Amino acid sequence: MIRKKKSTKPKTIVVCSSVSFYKQALESEKSLKRLGFKVSLPISARKMEKTNNYDTSFYKPWFKNPADFKRKAFLMRDHFNKILKGDIVLVINLDKDGKKNYIGGNVLAEMAFGFYFKKPIFVLNVVQKDSPFYEEVFGMSPTFIQGDLSKIK
């Protein structure tokens, strides 16, 4: 009897970050693919890539027109579904507006969603003690990879 070799399906990494870091998320995607992962990014990151427009205010129309918050809700649900289907959560947290290794409320929600569904969570940079979400982030026991994507397993 000849046994077929089991094919190993590449793991899917779902990238979570502030919209301010989507350009870096797209750059990280290339490295992650070279490491053998499939990569899932937010819809707006793909739009930024296609249009080469990285002006974050363009992708947040709800601040000018509150009726557009329904778009925000759609984007959040879409990304939660990606997390549910994916294998690994990767948080890209860089410096933003004077805050070192920034994680905002939406990324915290995405991390919590992944945590609830027992997805391994990797965070690019250590969250600072002065972060308003320090306790919550550390409570999810993520792996901090110090900027080294090759540490994701």
How is this structure best described in words?
It is a single chain. The chain has 153 residues and is an alpha/beta fold. It has one domain: Rossmann fold, CATH 3.40.50. The chain has helices at residues 22-34, 43-51, 69-85, 105-116, 134-139, and strands at 12-17, 38-40, 88-92, 121-123, 143-144. Helix 1 (22-34) links the parallel strand 1 (12-17) and strand 2 (38-40). The termini are far apart. The model has no long low-confidence stretch (mean pLDDT 93).
Q: Tally the helices.
A: 5
Strand order of the largest sheet: 2-1-3-4-5
Structural class: alpha/beta
Number of domain units: 1
CA distance, first residue to last residue: 34 Å
Strand composition percent: 5-15%
CATH topology assignment: Rossmann fold
Give a concise summary.
This protein is of the alpha/beta class. It has helices at residues 22-34, 43-51, 69-85, 105-116, 134-139, and strands at 12-17, 38-40, 88-92, 121-123, 143-144. This is Maf-like protein.
Characteristics of this structure?
153 residues, 37% helix, globular
What's the helix and strand layout?
Layout: E1 12-17, H1 22-34, E2 38-40, H2 43-51, H3 69-85, E3 88-92, H4 105-116, E4 121-123, H5 134-139, E5 143-144
Helix pairs in contact: 1-2, 3-4
